[in-house]
Amino acid sequence: MLTDKAKHKLKVIAFWQKHGLKAALDAFNVKERTLYLWKAQIKKWSGAAEALNEKSKRPKRAREKSPSASGLLPSSICVTEP
Fold first, then answer.
1. For the packed helices 32-44 and 21-28, what is the interaxial angle rounded to 10 degrees?
2. Per the count of CB atoms within 10 A, which of 21, 24, 25, 46 is most buried?
């Protein structure tokens, strides 16, 4: 399934192929490098348009939170008022 952003990217690439680079840059206000990046993504996925869908930006390996960093202290250290 294609997202709206991916459909827009496909539209820009189709316009580029039909009218040329200069016209596509002027009409859609994207950088030349971006067009070549999108084209390379499609080629890498063997022509599948799903290659243009947004990928997750979350790190594959995130640091784990330590208990002291989250504000949790062991119960033996808790301070109570008399």
1. 110
2. 24
